[in-house]
């Protein structure tokens, strides 16, 4: 079997309604734009797709397919995923590929593999579980009462925990951290994501508040450029750190966080930021060898497959971005996400796809 065509498609992606915001200094939800779909086809008639949804995705993907991906992939065996994954890293040395594009080819090839075997990709990966609890991962709201109300709604809807994305103000965030713990009690798992808003002194200040409030993990308080800084943070606070989310280098970078003693809870795994399915699985197996967690990052269909295939992950991350909480469609009333059942990975439903992509769109039960 050989790859015979590599194509990009554009699909309109509407703005989130209502719009939401992140911490001070970061952009909020994206305006309406165009996403990109990568499709890889073969002489056996089997194809695989991957969805690229970041701002500017369509233009970026069109360029990469024409200039890099198609010339490299035509004629290759789509089942040699390991070789192709390594080849993408070679290409990155010269082209400096944007981080979210490093895993697109790999994700499409894993989708192709699932379709070839008539199985969901998580089963082709081996499969570990068939359901996983979800936590509500908030955007940034305006006040402590707003956050507490969102937490109440989320728990009533079945979510099994709450993760805060707060304001990026150490003193104000620490006040929210304590208020939420007092409000929900000791039994609800709570997490906090600093969205890289702090330097080391402020990260320590917030970390001590999280330790006092018994939060489950502390995520990305600083940009992940200085692993040394994260090692110092880990030694200064008791709350466990979840690290290596947005840093380049997939499992190779995650390994350095672990060796510096910075990954006291674990590391992040995702298709978007850790080099596709293959990179995420490498990261998970690395973490497992040190008896650490590999928590799957982000709300999308490929990451649902990762959640079912990775043994050392705990939750599915489900974004909650409005003050009127609406439970994500894949999360049931008990706060569980169930394993996908269709072949391959699938594209998200609800978008205006070209006709030729309709067979790849997720079909809701």
Automatic annotation (TrEMBL):
InterPro entries: Enolase-like_C_sf (IPR036849), Enolase-like_N (IPR029017), Enolase_C-like (IPR029065), Mandelate_racemase_C (IPR013342), Mandelate_racemase_N_dom (IPR013341), RHMD-like (IPR046945). Residues 144-240 form the Mandelate racemase/muconate lactonizing enzyme C-terminal domain. It comes from the Bacteria. SUPFAM superfamilies: Enolase C-terminal domain-like, Enolase N-terminal domain-like. Its cofactor is Mg(2+). Keywords: Magnesium, Metal-binding. It holds the Pfam family MR_MLE_C. The keyword RNA-binding does not apply. This is Enolase C-terminal domain-like protein.
């Amino acid at each position: 079997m050989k790859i015979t065509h590599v194509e990009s498609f554009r699909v309109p992606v509407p703005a989130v309604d209502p719009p939401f915001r992140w911490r001070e200094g970061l952009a909020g939800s994206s305006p309406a734009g165009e996403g990109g779909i990568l499709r890889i086809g073969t002489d056996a008639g089997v194809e695989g797709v991957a969805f690229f949804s970041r701002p500017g995705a369509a233009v970026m993907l069109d360029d990469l397919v024409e200039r890099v991906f198609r010339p490299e992939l035509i004629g290759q065996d789509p089942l040699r995923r390991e070789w192709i994954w390594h080849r993408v890293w070679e290409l990155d040395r010269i082209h400096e590929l944007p981080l979210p594009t490093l895993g697109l080819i790999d994700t499409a090839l894993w989708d192709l593999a699932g379709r070839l075997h008539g199985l969901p990709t998580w089963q082709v990966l081996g499969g570990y579980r068939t359901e996983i609890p979800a936590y509500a991962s908030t955007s940034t709201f305006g006040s402590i009462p707003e956050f507490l109300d969102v937490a109440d709604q989320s728990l009533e809807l079945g979510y099994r925990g709450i993760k805060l994305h707060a304001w990026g103000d150490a003193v104000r965030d620490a006040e929210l951290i304590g208020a939420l713990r007092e409000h929900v009690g000791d039994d609800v798992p709570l997490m906090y994501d600093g969205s890289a808003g702090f330097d080391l002194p402020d990260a320590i200040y917030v970390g001590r508040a999280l330790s006092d409030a018994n939060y489950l993990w502390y995520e990305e308080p600083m940009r992940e450029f200085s692993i040394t800084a994260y090692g110092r943070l880990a030694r200064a606070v008791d709350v466990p750190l979840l690290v290596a989310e947005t840093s380049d280098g997939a499992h190779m970078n995650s390994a350095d966080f672990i060796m510096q003693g910075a990954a006291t809870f674990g590391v992040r795994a995702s298709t978007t930021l850790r080099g596709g399915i293959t990179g995420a699985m490498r990261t998970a197996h690395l973490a497992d060898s040190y008896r650490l967690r590999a928590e799957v990052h982000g709300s999308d269909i490929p990451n649902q497959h990762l959640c079912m295939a990775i043994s050392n992950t705990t939750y599915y991350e489900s974004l909650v971005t409005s003050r009127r909480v609406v439970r994500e469609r894949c999360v049931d009333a008990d706060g569980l996400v169930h394993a996908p059942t269709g072949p391959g990975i699938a594209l998200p439903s609800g978008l205006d796809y070209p006709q030729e992509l309709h067979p790849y769109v997720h079909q809701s039960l």
